[in-house]
Specification:
globular; 4-stranded antiparallel β-sheet; 390 residues; 3 domains; 56% helix; mainly alpha
Length: 390
């Protein structure tokens, strides 16, 4: 297994003057790299090493890798919330950056790794030094880095449709759901699709038969056992693979939306309860309250917009199961990925607000949150929900 040099020599660190090349530090908590690998890919982490290892284990080489450079193609790509001592790296004032994290030794992740932020000064030079190879002539790799930096999250359905806009189509194995998500989704998906699966099995489906097909759908194992479902939907095999991807996408967003729907009212109330007031002038308090109220309305409006997209799936599914109209559901599935950019963006921004608020508020269980910190979060959240990528 090829390893990367033990010290990357060009990671920038924020300084009061113009940044200069610095030697990177190995990640302070090397266990975090091991845990990143164990958890697979998530909406925040793109685990390219896991896909590479699975392909090697299955003896099925990846035809179209994510990156053409072999070291970069085994990296971790992480959506990283910038710490206070990192914000000076970026002159545009961004609060979140995309981190390329490369293990020092791919066979010993406990050794830690070095990292480069996409867009930091001289980042291509830094990244080339980190991976031991030039990137300026690898046009597709440069396109991929640009595309990844502009995405709010890496959920597989948003990711695939976004990359298509850049004329990038990596192997489909990069867009499969993580094992953790599959296990969490199984009961939900069973209840959602059991009626249609039963119809495809001529009404003779037993619970274990439906469960087996659900597992195969979520794991992308499209063998002969799924032929009755494919025939019910009147799909060719290429259409069936595309349709199953779209179907899983809507089920994924519907499953995720149920969780975020429970969180939104609680977070809005927490923001109200934790709003700073001590020592503030009345005018300042009113301005802060107005900001919080705007954010609350934006969260509700964003969720309602997401729910509207999900209802289009529900209506198409009812056409199939209640009106026995497989053509309508087939047409919906094949056109559905066009909605994934909007849905993934909405979901990613709502999850960012909920998760980051919970993370920061847990840091203030004893001392109250300062006005500056609270106001900055309200502005960040409001801006993120006001902007759309699609």
């Amino acid at each position: 297994m090829q390893s990367v040099r033990s010290v990357f020599t060009c990671v920038m660190l924020p300084m009061s003057r113009a940044p200069k090349p610095k030697r990177t530090q190995v990640e302070s908590n090397v266990r975090s790299l091991v845990m990143l690998h164990k958890s697979g890919s998530t909406s925040r982490v793109l685990n390219l090493l896991r896909v590479y290892e699975n392909a090697q284990q299955d003896n099925e080489p990846i035809g179209t890798p994510f990156f053409s450079h072999p070291v970069l193609n085994r990296a971790f790509v992480v959506k990283h919330r910038l710490r206070s001592n990192e914000k000076d790296i970026f002159p545009d004032g961004r609060l979140t950056a995309t981190k390329i994290l490369i293990p020092l030794d791919f066979s010993s992740l406990e050794m830690g790794g070095g990292y480069v932020f996409i867009g930091q000064p001289n980042y291509l030079q830094c990244l080339a030094e980190a991976i031991g190879g030039e990137l300026t002539r690898r046009a597709k790799d440069l396109q991929m880095l640009e595309a990844l930096d502009k995405l709010p999250s890496f959920d597989p359905f948003l990711l695939r449709e976004w990359l298509i806009r850049y004329d990038l189509s990596p192997d489909s194995r990069y867009f499969e759901l993580s094992l953790k998500d599959i296990m969490s989704m199984e009961n939900f998906v069973y209840n959602e699709i059991s009626l249609l699966v039963s119809m495809s099995l001529s009404g003779q489906a037993r619970n274990e038969a439906v469960t087996r097909l659900v597992k195969k759908m979520l794991a992308s194992r499209y063998d002969g056992d799924l032929d009755p479902l494919r025939e019910t939907l009147r799909l060719t095999m290429p259409e069936f693979r595309e349709g199953m991807f779209a179907w899983k996408g809507f089920l994924y967003y519907k499953w995720s939306a149920k969780a975020i729907e429970r969180d939104i009212p609680a977070v809005i109330q927490e923001m109200k309860d934790r709003q700073p007031s001590r020592g503030l002038e009345n005018e300042t308090m009113l301005a802060l309250e107005a900001s919080r109220r705007r954010l609350g309305r934006l969260m509700v409006l964003s969720f309602n917009e997401l729910a509207d997209r999900i209802r289009t799936y529900d209506n198409a599914y009812k056409e199939m199961t209640e009106k026995s109209n497989p053509l309508a559901f087939k047409q919906f599935l094949l056109s559905a990925p066009a909605l994934f950019l909007q849905m993934g963006d909405l979901m990613g921004q709502l999850q960012h607000v909920v998760h980051f608020w919970r993370y920061r508020s847990r840091m203030h269980t004893v001392a109250p949150m300062s006005f500056d910190e609270y106001a900055e979060m309200m502005r960040d959240f409001e801006e993120s929900l006001s902007g759309r990528i699609a």
